[in-house]
Fold:
Amino acid sequence: MHEQIRLSAETRHSDELAALAAVDQAPRPDGWLLSPRMVATFILGSDEAYPLPPSHQKNGQKKIKILPKYIGERELVEVAVATLASDRALLLLGQPGTAKSWLSEHLSAAISGTSLLVVQGTAGTTEEAIKYGWNYAMLLAEGPSAKAMVPSPMLMGMREGKIVRLEELTRCPSEVQDALISLLSEKMMAVPELNEVIAAQRGFNVIATANTRDRGVNEMSSALKRRFNFVIVPVIDDLEREASIVESRTAELMDEFKVKAQLPPDMVRLLVTVFHELREGKTLDGSVKLRTPNSVLSTAECISTLFNSALQAHYFDAGKVTPEHILRGMVGAVTKEDQRDMACFGEYMESVAKNRSEAAWQKFYDAGRKAGVR
Amino acid sequence: MMARAAQRSLNRTVTVDELHRIHIFPVRHHSPAASAELAALIRKLRPRLILIEGPIDATHLIPLIASDESVPPLAVYSYLPDARAEHFPAQAMWPFCSYSPEYVAIKEGARTGARIAFCDLPSFCHFPGIRIGAVENQMASPEAQTEKEYFSEDEQLPATAANEMIPFGSAFANRLAEKAGFRSFEEFWEARWEMGSPGAFTPALLKYAHLLRLGEIEELAGEHHRVEQERTGLREAMMWRSTVEAIRQGYDPGEILVVLGAYHAVVLHPEIVDTPPSTSLLDRLIEADPASFQLAPVDPAVIPEEPKRKRRQAGDDDVVLTLIPYSYLRLSEQTGYGAGNRAPAFYRIVWEYMQQRLDNGDTDAIHPFSAAAREMLILLRRELDRHGQNTSLADAIEAYRLAQTLASIRDKPAPGIAEIEQAGIACMGRGADGVVRPVLQRLLVGDTIGRISSRLMVQSALQREFYTTVQETKLPLKDIPVNKDLALTNRTDQAASLLLHRLKVLDVPFARLKSSGDRAYNRLIAVRESWEVRWTPLVDTRLVELSAYGSSLARVGARFVLRWLEDARSIDAASELLLSAALAGLEDAYEPALRRCDALGADKASFIHLAQACHNLAALLQYRQVRTVPLGPVAALLMRLYRRAAAGLASAGRVDDQAAQQTGEAMKMLYNVLQQQSQLDPQPYIDALIQVRDDDAAERDDGVEPMHPFVGGLALSLLVLLGALDGAGVARHLNLALSPAAGAWPAALYLSGFLSLNKTYLVRSRPVVESLNDYLTRLEPDEFMRVLPILRRTLSVLSTGEKRYLLELLSELLGFMPAMQEHLPVSAELLAKASLVDAEIAELLAALTGDRKTGG
Structure:
């Protein structure tokens, strides 16, 4: 039997969404599947168990708890949801790996029931990607017709009144960004070839993401900025919170990829601590100053490092993540952009890891010595 | 004196039934919702008597608070004018803003013709550290109990009197809020109480206060809390005593409205009586024989019949009670005390909309918080625009909508502060809070300060003088720092400067002088003054305190200066005071200051102090065009002090290294005075300098401390400047001082003194450079190493030009001159050679000292 590698958010959490919809009494904005408050609950999770509608009951499970999808400030999510119910589009800004896309995916899944209307912003993104293209065979055969038109995800979202996701907005060339302006303010798209204007249905809105490191690649015009409410997704600065996110997300990934490896909690903590300290440029107690590598040491990066370690453990070793695995993953993560970053990591090993007496840290340090990190 | 009949009726029994007919209104201080409900109640009930939680001895101020000429925020200020009060703060404040229920009760009550009185313990009972019977205010320290019965040494300033009872800020309160799904108690309060529908406030608050009181009893045990509880018990007993007495005086209980903090109100409120807190005052009050009602819950003996401070001498034991203006900023700084404190300006807008609703009876209108949020966001946009942020009205509209949606997501009836802030950041700040948050914060707090009408007698003469002058001279009255430049050529600014200097002398925290230099001298010769002005309630509290000393700022200032003059122990301190008096125009202080200077300048005054004093007096004389100072006596005094200074120079020179530097500075200062004041005869100074110079040269063997070479060198240099010595003479004395017999070290010190003045002349003087050269070439290598640091220091102050002169002269003396003038081709080879030579020299030096570091 074949299985999809990755399920979309709405499929993965269909039970939760159904349960929330069943109990949702609050008014829903037009075109929304859930009320704003329930959308926020879906994203932030809830300890309360909601009754599952009969069609979703499996193996005798009658109630479901809502898992947190985003661990962070409640206000941030609330502002994001409230924005989507307003006239303005939402722009999620943040460093790479701060779960912007993750948040955008789950927001659109909860609001529109689909997270698949995505436009990926790149330097090569053309206007067609946010407007429409043509099936040229049909265009030649029949001339312009509704059938020959290939709608963009944006156009589909407008027609159906759904949330459209626009990834990496600032990577799009400025003509694409300009096309977006009229689209967002008029909420209409003219198709001169068909002598037609397609109006957006209620429920349509856009979630764009942009990378703060990319600011300036294609600086947004102030006209476009005015069409968005900005929400900055911060890097998580709380170690405990980060550790719990890393642990749960890695476990989810391992589940998806059917990787069976043991993740000792002290390994997770060690990795998160290393990331945290290198990112902050000082140790947790503030006693040692550190050089910060250029590589982005985001939470997402941390998760991927841990997952890689788990992969190694699963396929090549006894299935238990050890400091050696962590170290190998770490070297890859840190030196991704710049070989000089290796020196930062080496300094860290010598000035911080070496002096920590816990067994895990000592093994980590020894592994580093063996691998020639210095 | 009370009539006997009245006395009898005052002793009649008050029944519990009667007590239950009293209207009790629970408030939270500075709560618009409480105020709105209270105003509605007063209009409906039209009570004959309104009792308000506030110091009973401030009741006479109520008509003044109610006056339309007084504009909130203002505060009842109580203070003890006592010498000891300078060492610890015997004071307390009760601030009110326009939406404080206490203030609203006063305004509404005045309108409906009710009698209004305060009913809490007298103001002094709220001073920190004070003891009432067995109960001690929380600030009291153990030592305070033996020495001073009533006061502690604790220096902590009381923010407001009501601060000591903060049920709303407790951990318990915060946990309740968290449980209800809010981030903070303030947010919880705002959403559940302030935004609630009209009429819902009182029951909800009472229930909450009841819960809180129960919760506190369970959770906050411990000694400190017990003391607080007893104090609270005393205060409540006092409030109820006032109420019971009102009934005895003939008020029908149904005509009495008591406005109390919810925490106190809960104890006797009829709605709570059914489920009384187990250990509350209520139990005891209800169960007790009503006749014994006046007995306190804690201990009957300690209830003050008429609280009075005992053991104080007559005349100085009057507590001063007055009204002072207050500011929104101060209000916002009192954390935990009352709702609305976080954002006084915002809640004022809310209150205005609530009043509209109250006056029109229009309950369908937009929610006051929504209206206020809209106004706030428009203000924010305007302010951001002013800060160069590119925002449009569309942004404000979007922000308002977003705030509304956020409120509905959070199940709030309308947007509050949190929603305004988040919407502002998302819609106007492009997600970044760095700009929006501080701007919004300022808007929410506001810079409003209150006003007390000048016609009201509560203002002291000093306050009146202050406010009148501030108005006349156009000084800013704001509770934010404002820069103010004063041009002293302008009459208005002169008056402003005079006022500010007076306030400075009197330690009134209103303005800070920003111009450079701390000495009065620098301030005197300036024609521009740069001040940072900021009004705070402390200005008024200080002015009220100072009122005890006189009725005008000039007179009080003079009194202070006179007192300091008596304490002044040196001539420079006294002359500095004279300068301060001149700056502040304290004419009464001139004569005594001059006399004091004269006396202190008599025999034992040191040269340094005298020189400083001469310097100050000279400044005063120079400054005559702007300020009115008696010039004749000053000039005469300067003459006397100058002569004394000159006479004292020789002994000031027989000192150690450090003191020699100070003496040197004073010598230069005295020289400057001579330069400025042409009427002074330089001869005495010249004589003194010659004495110093020759003293150094003379062989002394009588046990007297020798003249310090630095002073000697400087004296020689000064003599050149004063024209008392020609080039040849200089060389002669320099040769003497630098001769091998003098020793290498003293000679180096002599040089440093000599070259510390008038360098340009000296390095161009051939005889001088010659003797300098002789001295240096005579030095043994180890001697050279020893004096090198001091020589380096001496010569390093030379400018490039001076160094060139020195170099030219030297090369001429050494016969290098022709070579110097030739153009030398500089090749890389030569440079390399030069650096080799450099290195060699460095090595040699290092070898000489045995230590690389000192060699460098």
Notes: Chain A has 15 helices and eleven strands.
